[in-house]
Design brief:
Layout (H helix, E strand, L loop, with lengths): L10 E13 L5 E9 L3 E6 L11 E4 L7 E10 L2 E6 L3 H9 L13 H17 L10
Antiparallel strand pairs: 1-2, 1-4, 2-3, 3-6, 4-5, 5-6
């Protein structure tokens, strides 16, 4: 069964991928599962209450360290599932214009779906490795 109108193809995850929602100001964080994702948004399964949280804009942390993330806004609430839209990065547009000599962002011959699957596979393989903080010499 389809989950609302979709502008781009979705990739579904059988078991869900553990991710975190965090407020823009960093004052709150919630565990959740990403059920499906596309280039433009995702569907999340929330276990705890969202009452009292500012969900107009928030970060979706795709790694426990917060190094991989997307800025999101709430699109819909359906029981314990929510739909989010990924917000465009304002700085990315600026850099693309100045980095035009680097070539296209998406490799030719790939689809958006294959890039999502590849990114999620990389994400899950990184999660299986223990986090090691970078070495700092004093």
């Amino acid at each position: 069964m389809a989950y609302g109108a979709r502008n781009s193809e979705r990739v579904e995850f059988e078991r869900g991928i553990p991710v975190y929602m965090m407020g823009i100001d960093g004052t709150w964080r919630r565990d959740c599962l990403m059920i499906d994702a596309s280039q433009t948004g995702a569907r999340l399964l929330i276990e705890n209450s969202l009452e009292g949280l500012d969900l107009k804009e928030f970060f979706l942390l795709l790694s426990s360290t917060g190094l991989a993330y997307r800025r999101c806004q709430l699109v819909r609430v359906d029981g314990n599932q929510i739909g989010v839209e990924f917000l465009a990065r304002k700085t990315a547009k600026r850099h693309r214009a100045t980095d035009a000599h680097l070539g296209p962002v998406k490799p030719s011959g790939t689809t958006g779906k294959s890039l999502i699957v590849l990114n999620c596979q990389m994400l899950t393989s990184r999660r299986s490795q223990a986090y090691r903080p970078p070495y700092h010499s004093s």
